[in-house]
Structure formats: C-alpha cells, structure tokens
Amino acid sequence: MNRPDITQYRVSFRNAPRAYSLLARVLEKEKIGAKNVKTARCGDRIAVQFLAPKSAKLRGALEKTGAEVSEDQVFQLELPNRPSELHRLAQALEDEGIKILSLYSAVENDRIRMVLAVDEPANAVALAQRLGFDPDYYVFEL
pLDDT for 68-95, tens place per residue? Predict the structure, then answer.
C-alpha cells in the first residue's frame, strides 16, 4: 500500500464574503481546483473541505486567513455500484466503532470509487481489506 500523500483539509471561518475570497485566493495560488471542494453553512460559519497534497506551506497560508484548519488522512477504495455494498461497508465500520468523517464518491460504470476520511484510518483500511475491497492511501482525483 502506498504512503499517504493526499490530505482532506477542513477549513472553518465566519460567513463573510471577504473570508471566502481570501480562501479562494489561497486555493488559486496553491493550484487547487474546485473539483473536490465541498462547502456547507453551519450557523454563522462556513465549513469547507477539499483534498490536496499534504503541505505545511498550504496549511500556513490557510491559517493566515484567520480560518480554523484541520487535516484528516484519507484513503480510497472501489466497490461494486450496488446500494448493498455501501451499506455493508458502513455497517462494518459501525460495528467496529469507526466514524465516517466524510465520503467523496464517483461512479465509473459498474464501480463506485470512494475517498473516505474516518476517525481510525488504519483500522478502517484493515477492515476494508477483510471485506474484500482494495483500499489504498494513494488517492486519485475524483
């Protein structure tokens, strides 16, 4: 299994036009496209998640905007494009007490490619292997 090099960044800031503009400027400067950026409002705050190579420089630039920044290790796996497979994975994670923090997915013919962030990545990867999936820390863009 390859070394992890992609990180999920979670950035939270007060919902103000200038704050989002500053974040967008950092993403542009670091050449991070909008393809894997997810944004949600939480009360008077905005939460933004995106995948990018792990970088102290990027984290520092994000923190300089005044945002709260955290990182989660992610891994990728493929499973058959059937609702029962997602349920089987989610149930197995629940049975082991592993929380899903986020899930990105893309359908490719009869397969679903997922990128997951969980609170126990090593245990989740081992569990996915036992389930017959082929998890990997090397993450391709979705």
Answer: 999 999 999 999 998 899 999 999 999 9
Query: In sequence order, what are the residues at sequence separation of 6 or more whose Cβ sits closer than 8 angstroms to the Cβ of residue 122?
Result: none
Is 93 exposed, middle or buried, given 0-12, 13-18 or 19+ CB atoms closer than 10 A?
A: buried
Q: Is-contact 135 75, C-beta < 8 A?
A: yes
- Taking phi first (over 0 means left), then psi (-120 to 50 degrees means alpha), and beta for anything else, what does residue 109 get? left
The domain defined by 6-71 carries CATH number 3.30.70.260: yes
Same-fold call for 6-71 versus 73-130: no
- In 3-state terms the chain splits into helix, strand, coil percentages (rounded to 5) of 35, 40, 30
| Separation between Cα atoms, residue 118 and residue 110, nearest integer Å | 25
- Tens-place pLDDT, residues 12-69: 999 888 888 999 999 999 988 877 788 999 899 999 999 998 999 999 999 999 999 9
